[in-house]
Amino acid sequence: MAGYSSNYRRYIVAVCAGTLLMAGYLVFTRVRVTAALGFFVLLTALLRLIPIDLDATAQLDITPSADLSAIILLTPHASMISALLGRVLSEVVHKERWKTADLMDMVAWYRSCEPALATLVAGFGYRLLEGIKPGTSFIWVVLPLSGAAIVYYFTLTCLKSLEEHKRYRVNFWIAFRVNLKNPLGMVVNPVLGLATAAFYYYQDLGGFGIMLFVVSLLVVIYATRLFVDMKVVHRHTIEALVSSIEDKEPLSRGHSINTAHLAAAIARKMGLDEAKVTEIYWAGLLHDVGNLGTDERLLAHPGPLREDQFALIQNHCVVGAGLVSNVPFLKNTERAILYHHEHYDGTGYPAGLAGNHIPLEARVLACAEAFDAMIQDRPYRRALPLHEAYEEIVKMSGRKLDPDVVAVFKEVFKDIERMGLDVFRRHHSLDTNR
Questions:
Q1: Do 66 and 39 meet the contact criterion of CB atoms below 8 Å apart?
Q2: pLDDT digits (tens, 9 = 90+) for 332-342
Q3: CB 377 within 8 A of CB 383
Q4: Strand residue runs (E) in 135-255
Q5: Domain 6-231 adopts which CATH fold?
Q6: Which secondary structure element, helix H or strand E, spans residue 153, and what is its range?
Q7: Whole-angstrom Cα distance, residue 113 to residue 16?
Q8: Residue range 242-251, pLDDT digits in tens
Q9: Angle, nearest 10°, between helix axes 360-374 and 274-286?
Q10: Is 381 in a helix, a strand, or coil?
Q11: What's the distance, CA 310 to chain centroid?
């Protein structure tokens, strides 16, 4: 816990202690130790130890499928104990934790308490929605389980966002929206949970139960694989383009990803929907892709450019927009890339658009790009300190930049000051899909 604020440490200890005390009380007063409970404890531990790799940087945690199946077949109290003990068991087993000081890592214990509390709340939600009862057809479990899954993910997202709020001092609602950004787990885990519960529930029906379980599992695996393959291809395409841009401009290495993070943060703070935020993020990554067609000597020129040379530099917006327009999943970034050097007063390029005639995504990207460019070294000048760059952005309001976007940027800059630039960028990255 070293290195964390005292407020964050108190929060972690309070949640862990409260959850463990509640679990101890339930074990001695409300929960019967049964074979079913043991089965779900072991299943939870096993699934925790074998996440599904989506690509080199992201994983899909399927442990919630065990929580949701336990909710169907156990009491809310027992399903909470199953979720907690299973994760604790996996923590102890993983990397021989019992031999290291990691066993006392309260943050790791907190990671086990979060889903346990979410399982308890979702369990009561499931019972409230009149879940499975003796003699009730299993098909009627689908609707209450769907409701329980929503409650589970809502509670888990709230707990995770509150932890990030305490840890990084980021706005809770920003963290909440970020943590809801990918619905894959919300789709896969309820289906897997239903399939597991069905298999356990119908095990005395022989072939029918096995068939239901296998078919459900195959459908989930197939759908997941299609989704993963699509995301991997998209990611690799964008990574290849960004790498090519940075190889062309070594001094600007990191500018594309940093611009994308900041543009996404501004878009999110403006209340744009997550699809539009993602679109702006990708546009930020690729806003300089047109420089692939620009002479490296111009990009690395240490002094002022002649008018004809600057015209060649300006052409990168048109070239970049043309490149992404030919890629179906990047087509929505075309307008942002084409117009991100337009000025609010109409003095920009390539079309001389002004005010609200400039697409919103381009106005957001222009602000983010300008700020990050100023805090990086360039061949013709040294980087500005953060606060000097901030003052320059404020001065550009109403001239080069949209005043409304700059007003939102001011709020985002407060997050940068509070969290630090590196933590801020990690928090607003869309690179990891879980």
A1: no
A2: 888 999 999 99
A3: yes
A4: none
A5: Arp2/3 complex 21 kDa subunit ARPC3 (1.10.1760)
A6: helix 142-168
A7: 6
A8: 676 666 665 5
A9: 50
A10: strand
A11: 38
- What's residue 232's pLDDT? 61
Q: Within 10 A of 336 (CB to CB), how many other CB atoms are there?
A: 27
Element (H, E) at 210: helix 207-248
Percentage of residues in the chain having pLDDT higher than 90: 21
What CA–CA distance (Å, rounded) separates 327 from 180?
A: 27
Q: Is the dihedral of CA 400, 402, 407, 408 positive or negative?
A: negative
Q: Do residues 263 and 280 make contact, with C-beta atoms less than 8 angstroms apart?
A: yes
The share of the chain scoring above pLDDT 70, in percent, equals 63
DSSP 135-146: T--GGGGHHHHH
Two structure tokens written together for 125: 């939600």
CB-facing half-sphere around the CA of 343: CA atoms within 13 A: 12
How far apart, in whole angstroms, are the C-alpha atoms of residue 395 and residue 385?
A: 16
pLDDT recorded at residue 134:
47
CA dihedral angle for residue 136, residue 142, residue 148, residue 151, rounded to 10 degrees: -150
Residue 300 φ/ψ, nearest 5 degrees:
-100, 10
Please state the domain extents for the chain: 6-231, 249-427
C-alpha dihedral sign at 267, 262, 156, 150: positive
DSSP code per residue over 33-76: --HHHHHHHHHHHHHHHSPEE-SSS-EE--HHHHHHHHHHHS-H
Cα–Cα distance for residue pair 60/188, rounded to 1 Å? 9
How high does pLDDT run on average in the chain?
76
DSSP 131: -
Query: For 249-385, where are the alpha helices, taking DSSP H only?
Result: 255-269, 274-286, 296-299, 307-314, 316-325, 334-339, 360-374
249-427 folds as Hypothetical protein af1432 (1.10.3210)
Facing residues of 60 across strands?
52
